Amino acid sequence: MLYHFKIKPMYKIVFYISILVSCFLMSCVSNVEKGEEAFENEDYEEALEFFKAANKLDPNSYYILYNIARCNEELGDFKAAIPFYSKSIKLNPKFLEGFLGRARCNMKMEKYESVIVDTDNILALDESNFDANSMKGKCSFKLMQFMDATHYFNEALKKNPDHLSTYYHRGVARASFGDQYGALKDLNFFINEKKDFAHAYYNRGVILEQIGNFPLAVSDYSKAIGLNLKNWEIYYKRGVCNFQSKNKKAACQDFKNLAKYDKKLSADALKEYCL
Known about the structure:
78% of the residues lie in helices and 0% in strands. By secondary structure, it is mainly alpha-helical.
């Protein structure tokens, strides 16, 4: 004999709610997984739609909010990304990746004071964090706080001594507060490892010019020009260094080349150095 049990109305409601919750969770998880897959495949627009759908189902997930922010950041919409990074941080105040993401976006938008606030929050949680020290160094440089910038680049290199571009940034910062020989050491190291970065040659050329090594400065300016760094300043500087190196002919040619960028400066330089 089969026995049929009647489910009481109250239990039916609980049963149906549990099914709805399960479906809700499965749908949310599915959207997150699809979003992660699309993000990994660099399809940021599709990833954004999946994470937005997941956010509608679970609006208080700091992880979903963080991923919406990441998608916007990758799409270049930094202004749209920042509120989602902020929401993720509010839900998880110790979420380092949220602070880092917001700092990156503010960096792109040149809001350096805001970057420093976020990097300070990160360093309060993880004082040796490479990204935070590196970003704070770059912001300090932009704010013309060159000694502070050097300090934070030092801290970044303690964490990751093989990070090549940090040597370049530290070298430029050192040069900016008068530590030319420390700057030369950093730029020499950088150029030895990366020989195709025009600005490194240019900046080393500036330092060599400052310490009076004009022939080597000419060499570095020439390498920078050969790597397609061409503007009025580099031709003017190389012209002055050629003149100081007793190569008047090369100097006058540089000053003639200035006319492509600044005719008046070219005429003034030719009058001063070549007549």
